[in-house]
Each structure stands twice: as C-alpha cells, then as structure tokens.
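S.,

Sequence below, as promised.
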Amino acid sequence: LCDCPGLVFPSFVSSTADMIAAGVYPIAQMRDHWPVVSLICMRVPRDVLNAHYGIHIPEPSEQELREKGLWDGSSKKILPPPTAEELLGTYCIARSMLAPSSGVPDYQRASRIVVKDYSEGKLLYCHSPPALNEDSGSSSIEDKEYHQETLKTAIRNTNNIKKLQKLEHSLAVAA
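The prediction came back faster than expected:
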C-alpha cells in the first residue's frame, strides 16, 4: 500500500479525455465531451454500443466506405468505429433527449451518461494482452478470437439474447 496526500495523476495518460474516461478526472468538470466520447467510440465496438443501449447506430453507406478506403467492391466491408456524433445523436433520439426550447439533441447530457457507463465498467473495454512470441505470426488469429470472445461477453452482459444469437450465427458462418 502507498499512502499519498492527494491525487497522483498517471504518467501513461496522454490527454484529459483519457483521464476522464479512466475516472481519474471528475465527469462533472468535463468541459468538452467530444474527445472523451470519440475515445470511447474508438475503444468500444459498434455491436457492443448497439446492444448495451438498445440502439442501432447507422452504418456508413458504400459511398462513404469507398471514400475512406474501407470497401473494395466485394461483399465484405469493414465498418469503422462509430463517430461520437453518430453515437450521441442516435442515443439522444432513442431516449428523446432533446433540448426543450430548440428540439436539438442534448449531446452534453447523453455524453455524461455514456462516459459514466464507461468509467464504471458497464461498457466493456478489453484489449488483448501483448503477444508472448512475436515471431510466431499467430497473434492476429489470437487477437481475432479474443475480440470475438469480448463481443460475446459484452453482449451477454447486456442480456440481449437476440443480438447474442445473431453474433454467434455470424461468427459460425465466418468460420
């Protein structure tokens, strides 16, 4: 145990958004919510966000994927992580979080809920441990299996049986 007189900020954190997401910096003092929610969107997969909040974040069109270089015309497309605006906009509309006077989505209120869920561990964020044997070349297979298991666990934690069955079916077809 180590006793210190105050809060010791970690040296591995690169920004205030990291500190807010980690729960080191109070969410109530968050001034700009976009970097924190963007960081969460980069870390938590689209499927987990959809299952946890019971929403459907819109997927980018083929044209948008082509512009980003993520679709080559085959039936296989790589979905990028959702943007903070996509997540918060979809969440606000689904929960009717609109500003009373103007009717625009209340991004600030929604972001506080999402950041709180993330910092409390309700939104599952896991990354695979570093590969022990970097020369074997099997780390990408292990990462894929780890990612699939993380998705299954996160969706199971949301008690969304329909999404879990759909995920397991799509993983079985892909294998």
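The chain has eight helices and no strands.

Coffee later?
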